[in-house]
Each structure stands twice: as structure tokens, then as C-alpha cells.
């Protein structure tokens, strides 16, 4: 059984069919990329799977369990995390505090119980801070631990958002254009980071326009065009698919 199964997934916004009858599956432990022209439905597909949108029709299954329409919080408890195209960073907080926010679902939400166990609460806060610091080292941001987010570069903030998503301890992480707006050096750093995440055992689903990164990292690639599945396969298969070349990659010289 595949880790994630999507079958005949569609969503309509009025008369606009943003995603139409898309079917694919993702095995555990791989890097799976979703590519396509602007407006192809890539982020909408992410939003459907991660609970931001509710599908009009179709099925989404995680480890065989139907998850279509479940909230992002519910999915987080099942090991699903994501980042967004536009940064979702608290700019007036320290970098490490942003990462700690990612662990909020593991915190005790019973405030009275927490108040009665204040020493345990302090100990847990210390443990979460240590975890967050380790994640910042993992993404290469150890020098920014106590830096306010609004004093960090855009490239560092991109990796900070990934660290915050990793703080949720996901099994499946969706990265929406993690290299968008980055310079070549920063793009290489994100490329290496995505590879590290996959090697750590987390299944990665990637939306990205940098084709060099996509081809370097991906075990499988899904191509969308006008909300429909155009092709699916390995990097080599996608690179040589005439329909993909015509719609997206461009003709060979």
C-alpha cells in the first residue's frame, strides 16, 4: 500500500475547475515533485491534500485512511506538515521561537493541568527549546537561534519555515516552492536540505519551478496542466515526454 493515495480528486470554484480528476500515489521514503506552468493547480492540489480546501469530489487516503476534508490540525496529528509559497513567519519573534511554534500540537492544551504541574511545564519548554535548536542546526541556521526573524535574510527565513514544519515531527512534508526567490547559492542550500530531510526518513512532496533541483532530487514527478494530470514518471521519463515538452519544458534545441 502506498503512503498517500489520491483518486479522481477535483475542486471547483464556481465555474472554475482548478483541479480535475487527478489520480496518483506516493510511496513512503521518496521525494515526489509536482510541476507545471503557473496556474496549473499545483498549490491548489497541496491545499486539498493538507486540509486547506475541501475536495468537490474524489478521495485522499493516508495509510489507507480517508483524510479528505480533515483540518490541517487533524492532519498534523497524523504526521502531515507543510510550508507555503508566502512565508508564514512571526517576524517579531526570535527564530527559535518560530521553530517552537511548530511543536504546539505536542503541547498540553489543558492550562489548569499545566498550571498544577508547573515544574513539568518548565522542563518540557526547555526540552522543546533544545529540540528547536537542534532543528536549526539541521537546516543550517544555528547562528540565528536568538535572532529576531525580521533581521534574517529571505533565504534564511525560507529554511526557518522548513525547520518549523519539521518541529511537528512529520512523516510526510509538503514543501511549496522552497527555492522561490532565492539566489543560486541559497537554492543549492535548499536542494541539499531537501535531500537531508528525505534521507532522514521523511517523505517529501515538492512543488518547485527550478527544474535542475526537481530533476536532481525527485524519485517521481507529477506534471499538471490546466488542473489536469498531464504525465507522471521518473525524471528521465518526464524530461523526454513530448506532451510535457510542448506544455511546459519547451522544445529541445
UniProtKB/TrEMBL annotation:
Q: Which UniProt keywords apply?
A: ATP-binding, Cell membrane, Membrane, Nucleotide-binding, Transport
Where in the numbering of this chain does the ABC transporter domain appear? 4-251
Record PANTHER family: AMINO ACID ABC TRANSPORTER ATP-BINDING PROTEIN, CONSERVED COMPONENT OF ABC TRANSPORTER FOR NATURAL AMINO ACIDS-RELATED
**SMART domains hit by this protein:** AAA (SM00382)
Quote the cellular component terms of the Gene Ontology held in the record. plasma membrane
Protein's recorded name: ABC transporter ATP-binding protein
Q: Which GO terms describe its biological process?
A: D-alanine transmembrane transport; L-alanine transport; L-isoleucine import across plasma membrane; L-valine import across plasma membrane
| UniProt xrefs under InterPro entries | AAA+_ATPase (IPR003593), ABC_AA/LPS_Transport (IPR051120), ABC_transporter-like_ATP-bd (IPR003439), BCA_ABC_TP_C (IPR032823), P-loop_NTPase (IPR027417)
Q: List the source organism.
A: Candidatus Dechloromonas phosphorivorans
Amino acid at each position: 500500500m502506498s503512503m498517500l493515495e489520491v483518486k479522481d480528486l477535483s475542486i471547483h470554484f464556481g465555474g472554475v475547475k482548478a483541479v480535475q480528476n487527478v489520480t496518483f500515489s506516493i510511496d513512503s521514503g521518496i521525494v515526489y515533485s509536482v510541476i507545471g506552468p503557473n496556474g496549473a493547480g499545483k498549490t491548489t492540489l497541496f491545499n486539498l491534500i493538507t486540509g486547506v480546501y475541501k475536495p468537490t469530489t474524489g478521495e485522499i487516503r493516508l495509510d489507507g485512511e480517508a483524510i479528505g476534508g480533515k483540518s490541517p490540525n487533524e492532519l498534523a496529528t497524523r504526521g502531515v506538515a507543510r510550508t507555503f509559497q508566502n512565508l508564514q513567519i512571526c517576524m517579531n519573534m526570535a527564530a527559535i521561537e518560530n521553530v517552537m511554534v511548530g511543536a504546539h500540537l505536542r503541547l498540553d492544551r489543558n492550562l489548569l493541568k499545566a498550571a498544577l504541574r508547573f515544574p513539568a511545564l518548565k522542563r518540557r519548554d526547555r526540552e522543546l527549546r533544545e529540540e528547536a535548536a537542534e532543528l536549526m542546526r539541521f537546516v543550517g541556521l544555528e547562528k540565528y537561534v536568538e535572532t529576531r526573524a525580521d533581521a534574517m535574510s529571505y533565504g534564511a527565513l525560507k529554511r526557518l519555515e522548513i525547520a518549523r514544519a519539521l518541529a511537528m515531527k512529520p512523516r510526510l512534508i509538503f514543501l511549496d516552492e522552497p527555492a522561490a526567490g532565492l539566489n543560486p547559492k541559497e537554492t543549492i542550500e535548499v536542494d541539499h536540505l531537501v535531500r537531508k530531510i528525505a534521507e532522514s526518513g521523511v517523505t517529501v512532496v515538492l512543488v518547485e519551478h527550478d527544474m535542475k533541483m526537481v530533476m536532481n532530487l525527485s524519485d517521481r514527478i507529477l506534471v499538471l496542466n490546466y488542473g489536469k494530470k498531464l504525465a507522471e514518471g521518473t525524471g528521465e521519463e518526464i524530461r523526454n515526454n513530448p506532451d510535457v515538452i510542448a506544455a511546459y519544458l519547451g522544445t529541445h534545441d
